[in-house]
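Morning - zinc ion inputs below, output right after.
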Amino acid sequence: MLSVFCSPSRYTQGKNATAVLGAEMTGLGLSGPALIVGSRSPIRLLSEIWNRTLAEAGIAYAVLEFGGECSLAEIERIKQAAKQHKSQVIVGVGGGKVLDAARAVAADLNLPIVNCPTVASSDSPCSALSVIYSDDGIVQGSRFHRKNADLVLVDTQVIAQSPPRLLVAGMGDALATWFEAKTCVDGGIKNLRGGLSTQSALALAKLCYRTLLADGADALRAVQMKVVTPALERLVEANTLLSGLGFESSGLAAAHAIHNGLTTVAATHDYLHGEKVAYGLLTQLILEGKPRSVMDRVLGFATEVGLPITLADIGLTELTKEDLQKIAIRATAANDTIHNEPFEVLPDMVADAIMAADALGRAWKKDHGPQ
Ligand SMILES: [Zn+2]
């Protein structure tokens, strides 16, 4: 069995990094015309800078506003625009769905892809997969692409202007990385590219966890003040690069499967991917019977930055037996990553662990919450 490690060809991060987008692209041999697909607010925020940096680099470009959903219809619409503009490279600018759609378009047209995340809310920018939704926002499945992005460029000045809750959600996604990676590696599980993990991927996942504990709270304060600090730089790298490489090259386990289960109940729809993953992680740690010291560290961190630790925190104030069952059944679907756990996981075990996590989180809040 072979080990496989994958990553973007280049990762560039820093304050005002957008100003070097053109130079970074030409440095990698990427030439225009480019199609920039972006959400409305990044387009407003970055238009002038694109104008300058891409003109300097001699890259012609067109801008297309993203329709809001990474659906098959939207991917088709972007593809038509790319053909019409004779685009030679696709540049996605925005949150997870924009980047997912841009990646899918580039893959279908066999074009290079540049990802410029404007929020650090998940670990998707560095990955080579797109989550496809229906036009009304229900997850349809994942598409795996042949390769990762040619360039991921993260402007921390832009991240610093984004809503703090999105950064915290990214920490939730990143918090699960180390635990899910370790579970997969211990079990000799294939990673998302069909190979075994590497020491490198596992080391990056561990660094991801350490960085969250060390810098998470300071980074959150920086974004609340809309300023860029070294702690924010390190944390953005953890949320985006370390978590992305860690999960894709080591693997996912129960936390993400439980997230998928939680999405079946409408009351959780107002909560972000990373927020549900954080609750999924608590549940995973209980399923795995982790010692109290591990639980305390994770609960302490989650409380420090405001990640969910109870069902009420993700909108499930009154969870019915039927809904709990629905979550547990979806979380244990035949092809889901919960089966990367080293033991057989049955729905009733997941249901019990979900309730136990809630009790633990409530007890923690009572002992440690604001007086
Ligand atoms: Zn995730």
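Note: The mean pLDDT is 95.

O.
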